[in-house]
Design a protein that fits this description.
Layout lengths: L5 E12 L12 E6 L5 E6 L1 H4 L13 E12 L7 E6 L7 E13 L8 E3 L4 E2 L2 E2 L6 E4 L2 E4 L4 E4 L7 E4 L3 E3 L4 E3 L4 E4 L7 E4 L3 E4 L2 E4 L8 E3 L4 E3 L38
Parallel strand pairs: 7-9
Antiparallel strand pairs: 1-4, 1-6, 2-3, 2-5, 3-8, 4-7, 10-11, 12-13, 14-15, 16-17, 18-19, 20-21
């Protein structure tokens, strides 16, 4: 885990089936977040009357759900490890009330972040404030202004005010910085720090190469959009010529390998 003093986070929730919120009762349905030993965050509660007319997608047919409840926030944190707990406070069995969570994104910031905890949600929510602006916009008094182009979501106008970085950018500890032009997602600015590639290119050993370069004996891993060697050795110094795709003209002299400054000579 990189050195940091703040964690900025975003995540998506689904509230599945009929949650209940009764202000006069202690029996209320909600979910909590806990980052290590920090105080528990009461995340959100929903009133089933507010969303009972929504269609059911993955829950019980006669009960609705709210999907893609985007949650944004930040907490002070500097430990070199993190335990994130998502705690259910639902008062019925899972077949009647449940939730899902996906796309948890964490940014480890070296700067102190004061950002509101809020949720973008299509119905009234409780225990957590509704974000005043949609994703990719931030609150500027009485209006919503667009985030910096490097941010996919934000709490201010600068590249240092991102909750998450846009495609083609990575978080350098303070703000979102551009990836190498070959990378659509990356862990750093160099050509061999790619995490994903643009259309027509494929990931090989952290580099983006033309997809037609992934030839026998390499295979395409479609789920990860990557090119994989059939060789068992992790140490490429132990690979023989059969571990690499053949060079043009089937010549191999002078090559050091594939895709890491390694060239075929004809």
């Amino acid at each position: 885990m990189p050195e940091h003093i703040t964690i900025r986070f975003t995540m998506k929730f689904w509230a599945i089936d009929r949650w209940e919120h009764n202000p006069t009762s202690i029996q209320q349905d909600y979910v909590q977040l806990e980052f290590d030993s920090h105080p528990v965050i009461d995340l959100f509660g929903l009133n089933s009357n507010d969303y009972s007319s929504l269609p059911s997608i993955c829950g019980v047919d006669d009960k609705s759900e709210v999907k893609d409840i985007l949650v944004f926030g930040s907490i002070p944190h500097s430990n070199d490890s993190l335990i994130l707990k998502i705690i259910s406070q639902l008062n019925a069995k899972s077949k009647d009330e449940s939730f899902g969570v996906r796309e948890i994104k964490l940014i480890f910031s070296t700067t102190s972040t004061v950002a509101p905890l809020c949720a973008i949600i299509p119905v009234q929510s409780y225990r957590i404030q509704n974000c005043t602006c949609p994703k990719r916009f931030y609150d500027f008094g009485i209006i919503c202004k667009e985030c910096h182009p490097s941010c996919d979501s934000c709490f201010g106008p600068s590249e240092t005010d991102c909750y998450e970085c846009n495609e083609g950018y990575y978080f350098d500890g303070a703000g979102c910085t551009g990836c190498h032009s070959l990378c659509s997602r990356c862990s750093g600015p160099n050509y061999n720090q790619c995490l994903d590639c643009f259309a027509g290119f494929i990931l090989f050993e952290d580099e983006c190469i033309a997809s037609d370069r992934c030839t026998i004996p390499f295979t395409m891993a479609t789920c990860s959009n990557s090119c994989i060697s059939s060789c068992a050795h992790l140490d490429k110094a132990l690979w023989d010529e059969t571990c690499y795709p053949p060079c043009l003209g089937n010549t191999i002299s002078g090559f050091k390998g594939f895709c890491h400054g390694k060239f075929c000579f004809v």
